[in-house]
Design a protein that fits this description.
Elements: E1 11-12, E2 16-19, H1 26-33, H2 36-39, H3 50-66, E3 70-76, E4 82-92, E5 97-104, H4 113-127, E6 133-138, H5 143-151, E7 155-166, E8 169-179, H6 180-187
Parallel strand pairs: 5-6
Antiparallel strand pairs: 1-2, 2-3, 3-4, 4-5, 6-8, 7-8
Bound molecules: coenzyme A.
Length: 192
């Protein structure tokens, strides 16, 4: 997997712009990450301070410049509204593998925005980053996220029991994976 720098990458879809976060996004990112509905199955509890958003964006800017991971803010083209974020994390160069993560403002659920963003992000991962595998870690109770993954042809590969402890809550985790070969088959429209 070639080493990348991601800080200048922008992706476009029909309704969305995917672009690196800037400090101007801190209030929107804080609103997103402090919403208990969005954070219900996250690996951390809802944020209590905007300083966490500012610190995440600062960390992103360094990580994106060094190609350590990739996170985009998702902006709606029609009105410029910040809808959420998505990215590829835990990059493993040798195994050409990454973990996908995503979150959408509650008001934007149910319109297919994340599907649209992830189609483009996954294409970028398999083509520009030469990934061979994209994986996801999702709470089995997170029905919307499970549906989003399955709609993108991710395969369920395993169930990890009591994998996370978030606050005081012990949570299971499902592992999902999408392989380059499966993505290419789906893209070419060939059914196996
Ligand atoms: C996971 C999450 C992004 C899913 O949001 P979502 O809006 O359901 O996701 P999608 O973009 O896949 O949209 C699919 C929905 O939009 C609908 N939709 C409407 N217009 C659409 C269009 N043009 N194209 C596709 N879907 C469309 C679909 O029917 C579907 O709704 P339904 O499930 O009620 O039938 C969202 O629930 C979220 O942010 N959760 C909190 C964070 C989180 O859990 N992240 C994942 C951690 S593993």
């Amino acid at each position: 997997m070639p080493t990348h720098t991601f800080e200048k990458v922008n992706l476009h879809t029909e309704r969305l712009l995917l672009r690196p976060l800037t400090q101007a996004d801190a209030p929107d990112l804080y609103e997103l990450r402090s919403d208990p509905r969005v954070m219900r199955y996250h690996s951390t509890t809802p944020w209590q301070s905007i300083a966490l958003a500012q610190a995440l964006i600062q960390r992103d800017q360094k990580a994106m410049a060094e190609g350590e991971y990739l996170r985009f803010g998702i902006q709606r083209l029609s009105d410029g509204k910040f809808l959420g974020s998505c990215g590829l994390f835990n990059l493993d160069q040798q195994c050409r593998r990454a973990e996908i993560g995503y979150e959408l403002n509650f008001a934007a659920w149910g319109f297919g925005y994340m599907h649209e963003a992830l189609v483009e992000l996954i294409a970028f991962g398999f083509t520009e980053m030469s990934l061979n595998r994209i994986e996801a870690d999702v709470d089995p109770r997170n029905a919307r996220s499970v549906l989003s993954l399955e709609r993108l042809a991710f395969q369920k590969e395993g169930h990890l029991r009591e994998c996370w402890i978030v606050g005081d809550e012990v949570c299971d985790s499902l592992v999902y994976g999408l392989l380059l070969s499966e993505w290419q088959t789906k893209k070419s429209g060939v059914e196996k």
